[in-house]
Amino acid sequence: MKNGFLSKLRSVFAGALATMVVAGAAHAQETSRLDELLSRGKLIVGVSSESPPFGFVDEKGELVGFDIDIAKLIAKATFGDETKVEFVRQSAAQRWPNAQNGTIDFGAQTTSIYADRAQKVAFTRSYIDGGVVMIVRKDAPFQKLADFNKSDVTIANLTTPTQEERAKRLFPSAQIATFDGIAAQFNAVKLGRAQGAQLDGPVAAWYVKQNPDMRVIEERLTDVVNTGIFMKPGDFRLWQYLDLTVSEMTGGYLFADYSKIYEKWFGTKPLNVKWYLNQPQK
Amino acid sequence: MDAFVIFFTRYLPAFADGFLITAGVAALAAPAALIWAIVLIIPRLAQWTWASRLVDAYVEVMRNSPLLVQMYLLYFGLPLLGLFWSSIVCGVIAIASQHGAFLSEILRSGIQSLSQRQWEAGSAIGMRRFAVIRLVILPQAFIKVLPALGNQLIVLVKDTSLVSAIGVMDLTLTGKMTIERSGASFEAFIAVAFFYLILTSTLGLVLRIIEVRAARRYG
Fold it and tell me: What are the ABC transmembrane type-1 domain coordinates in residue numbering (chain B) (predicted)?
C-alpha cells in the first residue's frame, strides 16, 4: 500500500516537473510579432484614409491626421525615427481581418473599444477619448437633444452599434437612416436627407470648420467613448509593448509629444491622465 | 465552428430583416426593369426613327455608367432640386433604369434573331403591326432569350446590394453593421453570401421552371 502511494506521489512529481520543463521551453521560444517588427525596422500600421481629422488625405494627396501622427510617434519611440512606418489604408470593415491575419502589426483607426470587438482583437488602453455630439444644418430649428425626438425627424447613423443604441435610447420616436461612411452620413444631413447626425466631437468640429453651413448642437450626448489601438489577440509581448507606449503617451515621458499632436489636430491641450499633474485651470 | 454557431444564433434576426429588405427591393426592381425594357424596345419595333435614336443614346449612357454613381446622383442629387424620394425608391429607380437598358438589349437580340417571315406571316393573315408584335414576335423573342434574361435578373438581385450605400438596411448593410458590432468579418460575410445564395438560387429555380414550361408549350 505504502509503496503504491509513494510511487504515485513520485509519478505526480515527475509529471509536474515535466510539465514545468516543457512550459519553460515553450516560454523561451515564444515568438512575438514585436521581434519581427524590430528586425524589420519599421511598423506596419492600419489606418483610415477617410476619417478626418484622425486619418485622411489632404489637398497635397498626403495621408495625415491624429492617428497617423500617433503611429509616427510610436515609430519614433520604437526606432528613434518617425518615418519608420508603413501605412495600410483600410476601410472600417477591413480593420478586423487585417488585424487577425497579420496584414498589419496593429491598427490606429479611430476605433472605439467595445466588449464585442475585444473578443476578436486585443485593445490597448485608450489613447484618446471623446464625447459624441449632434451635427445639424445651420438653418435647422434644433437647439437641444429633445428636439430630435419627433417622428418627422431622421437621424443619420454610422454602422456602429453604439450609434444605433444611442439613437434608439435618446430619440425613440425619430426615423433612422444608416450609412457606412462618415462622409455619406454627413452629406445626408447637409443635403437634407436627414436632420441630424451623431459624430465624435473632434470629427464634428473638423467638419463644421470645413462647412460653415453646418453647426454642432451645444448639448452633448454625454457618452464617453474610448479609442484604443487594436491588434491580433494572443501576442502578449507586443500587446504589453503597445499598451505601455500608450500609457506613456497619455501620462508619461511621451506626453509632451502627444500634447503637440493633440493640439495640432484639436486646437486644445489634452489633460494628463495623471490628474494630479494637471495645473489648476485659472 | 463554435464561433459560427454563436454568431449565427446571435445575429439571425438582424439578417432575417436584411434578407426581407433585399428580397423586397429585388421584387420591386426586377418587374420594373422588365417592364421598362419592353417600353424601351417599342420605338424600335414601331420603327419610330427619332425615338429609337433616343433609346440608343439612353442605353449607351446607362450601360457605361456605374450603378452606384447613379444611385448617389438620385439620392444625394435630387434633394438639390427639392425632390425627397426615399432611399428605397431611389435605389429601385436606379436599378430598374440600368437593368432595363441591359434587358432591352437582350430582348432586341431575341427579336433580331427571329426570321423576317414571322413578320410577313403575321401581316399575311391580316394582323396589324402591333398585333404582330404582341402575339407573334414578343412571345417568341422572350422564349429565345429566357436564359440570358435569367442571368441578367440574377445580376440584378446581386446589384441590389448597392442600396446599402444610400442607407437602406439590406443584407449587405446588415453584414457591415454586424461586423462593426462584433469584429467577426468572415462570419458576417459568409452569412451575407449564404442569404444571397438562397435568394438567387430560388430565382434561378423559378426561371428554370419557366424555361421548361415554355419549351414544352412552344418548343
Answer: 15-207
- For CA atoms A220, A226, A227, A230, the dihedral sign is negative
| Distance, CA of A148 to CA of A263 (rounded, Å) | 32
Question: What is the C-alpha to C-alpha distance for residues A249 and A170, in angstroms, rounded to an integer?
Answer: 34
Domain assignment present for residue B8? The answer is no
B38 CB within 8 Å of a chain A CB: no
Distance CA B167, CA B182 (A): 20
- Going by C-beta distance under 8 Å and a sequence separation of 6 or more, which residues neighbour residue B100? B32, B33, B34, B35, B36, B37, B39, B40, B62
Residue B169's SS3 state is: coil
* CA dist list (Å): A229 to A121, B188, B192: 10, 23, 28
d(C-alpha A159, C-alpha A182), whole Å: 10
Q: How many CB atoms lie within 10 A of CB B207?
A: 17
Decide: pTM greater than 0.85: no
Judged by a CB distance cut-off of 8 A, whether residue A119 touches chain B is yes
Does the pLDDT at position A28 exceed 70? no
Whether B10 contacts B70, CB under 8 Å: no
Which tens digit of pLDDT belongs to each residue from B97-115? 999 999 999 999 999 999 8
Spell out which residues of chain A touch residue B185, defining contact as CB-CB under 8 Å.
93-94, 96-97
Task: Report how many domains make up chain B.
Answer: 1
Q: Say whether both A117 and A247 belong to one domain.
A: yes
Which of A154, A159, A185, A231 best tests the B interface by mutation, with the highest count of B CBs <10 A?
A159
Let me know: does A39 contact A6? Beta carbons within 8 Å: no
Do residues A142 and A261 both lie within one domain? no
Residue A47 touches chain B, beta carbons under 8 Å: no
Hey, are the CB atoms on A159 and B182 less than 8 Å from each other? no
What is d(CA A219, CA A132) in angstroms, rounded to the nearest whole number?
Answer: 10
Q: Predicted confidence band at A15 (pLDDT cuts at 50, 70, 90)?
A: low
Domain membership of residue A265 as a residue range = 36-128+225-269
Partner A contacted by B79 (CB < 8 A): yes
